[in-house]
Amino acid sequence: MVPKPSFSTAMSKLPISALPIPAPKRLLIHNLTPDTWTPNPVHFRTKVLATSPSLQRRARLLSPPCHFSYVTPFPIPFPYDIEPPSPTDHLENAADKNAYIEQWLSKREATIVQPPLPRFPNSSLRKYYGQHRDQPAELVGLSETGLRDCVPQLDVGDAFAVLGAPSLSGEFEDEGDGQPSDIPEAVEARNDLVDVLSGHATLMTPPEVEAESAFAPWSMRYSGHQFGSWAGQLGDGRAVTVLVTPNPSNPNETMELQLKGSGRTPFSRSADGLAVLRSSIREYLCSEAMQALGIPTTRSLSLISLPALPVAREKIETAAILTRMAPSFIRIGNFEAFNGPTNMFFFGGGQQNPDYDGLRILGEWVVKEVLKLPVEEGKPWGAELVYDVARRNAKMVAGWQAYGFMHGVINTDNVSILGLTIDYGPYAFMDVFDAQHICNHTDEGGRYAYKYQPSNIIYALRALLNALAPLVGAEKESGKAVTEGWAKDASEDKIKQWTALGVEIAGEVERIAQQTTADEYSRLLRKRLGLHRPESSDERTLFKPLLNLMESHRLDFHSTFRILSSFKAAWLANSESGTTSPELDALISRILAVTPEPERLDTETAKKEFLGWLTAYAARIQGEHADAAALSWDPDFSKAEEQRFTEMRAANPRFILRQWVLEDVIKRVERDHDSGKRVLAKVMHMACNPFEPWGAEDEDTPEGELSAEEKAERDYCGLGERKMLGFQCSCSS
C-alpha cells in the first residue's frame, strides 16, 4: 500500500520525490480507463518499459474506451539514432530486429529504481532512471509565484540562489551571480527537482506497491477541431503528467505537474515530442503574467534547458522542458474523443468510433473531481457540466478581451474544461489597438483575430455540447443520470433522438456564455476606468468610444489606460468655458504621445475627440460620487480622486509582455544561459508585479540620472521598435 499523506498545521517542505500523492479515489489514473496496452502502473513498469517500450513512442490510435496511456518522459533526439547491430548480433529476421530496437529503447527507459532520499525513507514515490540516458540539464527559471500558489510544500533547496539575482542591466557582473549553497540538504533538494523536472528521472511507486494503489506518469487522449476542421485524435503529443500532489491545506484539492516538451508519446503523430527554448520561455513567462492580471490560467513552475539536445524547427534549436501546473489539464477535446463528428483513419492517426460509456466515465469524473459541481447522486449532470464550462470559459475570454490578450490558436483541444488559459503558442498582448489584429501568422483567414475570440469560445462550447448531446438528451428523457451501459443497446435512431434532444440546450449555453462574457468584460473595463457602479450605457458611452479613439489614432492600448489613471474629473470642472486646464492639456498630450507613428497623427482632431470623451468620463465619475457612501467612495471628492488613482494603478499594468520584450529575453537567454537566467528572473518578477511603477515611473528624474537598472526597466515598459509592433509568431515550437 502507498503510505497515506499526512499534513501538519506547520507546513513542512519536502523535496519533489518526497511529496505525497493523493489516495487512489482522487487520482485520474484509477478512475478513468487506461490504454489497453498499458493497463496499470505495475504492468507498464515491469512489462512495457522492460520489453516493449516502443508502445509509448509509436503514433497509434487508442482503443475507443481508453482515456489515457501511461508514458514516461523521454527527452532524446528524434528520429532516434539507433546504432545498427553488428554482424555478430546475428539478427536473422524482422522479429530479431524488432527485439533489438525494443532493447535499445529499454536501456534508455526509466527502469532502474533508486532508494528514497535518506531523510525521507517513507516517501510514497521512488525515482527511476535509465541505463544509457544522461545529458546535461540546466535550471534556467523557477517561478516564485507558481511555487507559492500551487506547491507551497515543495522544497526547491538552493535553486533560487543558483539562478542568481534578477537583473536587466547587471547580468554580466560577478555580483549577483548564482551561487550554490554549502548546505548538503539544499543542494540535494535542488538536484532532486532538476532530475525530475528535466525528465531525467521518473517518479513511480516502489516495486512492492500493488497495481490498485500504484502511480506512474501518463498522457491524455483527446481529439479536436483545428481552425474549424475536424482533426480526429490528437492527445498529449509532448506533455506528460509526472506528479499529482494534494494541497497541504486541503487534501481534497490536488495539483497536477506536467512536463511539456519531454519526448514522444502515442499521441505525437509525426512530431518529435520536444519543445524549443524559445517557445518554452514564452509560456513560462506568460502563464504567471496572466495570473498577475487576474486571468484564469495554467501556471508555470520551472524551465529547464537541455543544451545538448538539438531540435529541428525552421532551424536547429535547443530543447527545453517547461513544468506547468493545474488542478486538471482536461480539455473540451477530451470529450470530443468519445463522440466526435466523424470516424476516420489515416497514417499515424484518425478517429475512433464513439464510446458512450467512455464519455459517461469522463463526465462523471469531471463533474465530481474537477468542476466539483453540487449535483445530487443519481440526478442528471450532463447539462450542468456544459453550463459550468460555458461560465468558466466566458469569464476567461472576457479577461482576454479586457487586457488585450490574443491566444492565437483557440482550437477546441486548446480550451480547458476549467476555463483556464492553456497552451501558450503564438500569443500576443495588444500594442496599438486594432480589433482585427491577428497574432498568429499561420492564421491566414483571421479566424482567431482579437475581436473573434469570444465567438471561438462559443464554437468550442458547441463542440462540447455536440459531444455530450446524446448523454444530455438521455438524461433529459429519463430525468435521471445515465448509468453504466446506458447506450449499449440503443439503436442509431435512438442515439439521434437523444442527440436532438440534447442540442436543444444550445441556445441556453450560448446565452450563458454571451451574458457572462459581457458582464465580466464590463466589470473589468469599469475596474480599469476606476468606476464602481454598473451602468448599462457604459459600453455605448465609454468603453466602445475609448477603443475607437485608440484605434483611429493608433494609440497603444495599455499605455492609454495607464495614463488615464492620472486623470482628475476636477480638471474639467475647473476649466473655464472654451479653455482647458494645463493639467488636462498635459494628460491628453501624454496619451497622444503613445502612438508609434506621430507623423500620421492629426493632433488637433485627436485632442478635440479625447476632450469630448474625457468630458463624458468626468460626468460619469461625478455621477458616482453623488452616491459616494453607497459606492464605497470617500465623501471628500479630492480624496475620492486619489482613491480612484490608486485603484486604477492596481488594475492597469505598467509592464506588459510585449512581443519585442519576449524576443529580447529569448535572445539574451539563448546567447548565454548564465547571464540570461538573471534577465529571465527579472522579467518574471516584473510580469508577476505588472502594476508597480517600474523604471521610476512617477519620478521626474531625467533619463541620464536614472540607475542602469531603472533605465532598463523603463525601456522594457516602452513600445520598443516600430517594426516589432503587431509582430506575429508561428505555431512552430
Walk me through the structure.
By secondary structure, the chain is an alpha+beta fold. It has helices spanning 41-51, 54-57, 94-106, 144-150, 159-163, 184-197, 277-292, 332-336, 356-370, 382-402, 453-478, 492-502, 506-528, 538-552, 557-564, 570-573, 582-592, 603-625, 637-649, 659-671, 673-688, 708-716; strands spanning 68-70, 112-113, 126-129, 138-142, 202-204, 218-220, 223-226, 229-233, 239-247, 250-260, 299-312, 316-326, 344-346, 349-351, 405-406, 428-429. It has a five-stranded antiparallel sheet with strand order 4-11-12-10-9, sandwiched between helices. Helix 7 (277-292) packs across helix 20, helix 7 (277-292) packs parallel to helix 21 and helix 10 (382-402) runs parallel beside helix 13 (506-528).
User: Helix segment count?
Assistant: 22
General shape: globular
Fraction of residues in H or I helices: 25-40%
Ends apart, CA distance between termini: 41 Å
Biggest sheet strand order reads 4-11-12-10-9
What low-confidence regions span 5 or more consecutive residues with pLDDT below 50? 1-9
- Beta fraction: 5-15%
- Structural class by SSE content: alpha+beta
For the secondary structure, the number of strands is 16
Task: Report the biggest beta sheet as strand number plus sense, adding barrel if it closes.
Answer: 5 strands, antiparallel
CA-based gyration radius? 27 Å
Mean pLDDT across the residues is 94
Which structural traits does this protein have?
alpha+beta, 733 residues, five-stranded antiparallel beta sheet, disordered N terminus
